[in-house]
Amino acid sequence: MLPSLKRTHRILSPFRSPSLSTMTFGTVVRRRVPRIVSVVSVTYSTSSSSTRMVIDKPQSYKFGVKPILFGVKPIPFGVKICSGSTEVKEMARKVWQDVYVVGGPDISDMLDCCVYLIDVADGDELVLIDAGAGRSFRTLVRNIEHLGFSVSALSHVVATHAHIDHIGALARFRELGAKIVAHELDAAAIESGEGIGAEFYGVPYEPCPVDVKMSGDALELKFRKHTLKIIHIPGHTPGSVAVLADIAGRRVLFGQDIHGPYMEALGSDTRLARRSLEKLLALNADILCEGHFGIYQPASAVRRYIEGYLRRL
Predict the structure, then answer these.
(1) Is residue 73 domain-resident?
(2) Is 82 within the bounds of a domain?
(3) Residues 90-135: pLDDT tens digits?
(4) What is the domain range of residue 55?
């Protein structure tokens, strides 16, 4: 029988938060050459709190390869979650005027990225930023409706990049009539399902046509009440994008996966990522709606967050 070890490691992963100090692998099993680790859960501590990260489907990795890639999401400390559980404890809520968070690991499903909703026409038209990993589709719809909106008003879903935790339910939302928006450099993966990381989650993916394929550095989507500027920020993936909106005197940035990870083996480009983060800093956002680590404000907190990851590139 192989020994089960509990070990503490200094964080090396670019996935980390700037304030993280140590990481504990809940279960690490070392095997014979080549060195393999099988990680079940991760706990880290910050200056203010502790957070447990859970891998829904335990995977094995060659030693030295960062396991924090797919299938790992931040779970609020105190929430009892076992491998495979979808227990959540928070509700969809308002972030700022016309901006809501309707999904995420503590709201819809532990596999989901943070999913944001923008009311761009006084309830008559809605835009969703990302779509979770797929199995929470009904929960996302229910959360939208609980906020007082009709899901039939959803006109667009912006896919910030082609990873399963962001695109899993795109096809379902498209069936409801929403147009899918993505950069052309990630569109092929969204439409084919190749290279999106679904195997790390153990969830199926339904390939989805992309209706609006962005090319170049920027695209504007104009609605009755708000204009959304979609900005190309390559680095995490070739076609990663951010969304910027000036709403009620605040500049709101939807910067999914600013934290990376930036791993060349997975198609990331650290040189481009550095430029992209510098571009985001220059936007001087007041509120950052991030892809996995929640919401940051005011502007000084947004700047610190982005600079923290820029220093690591």
Answers:
(1) no
(2) no
(3) 789 999 999 999 999 999 999 999 999 999 999 999 999 999 999 9
(4) 4-68
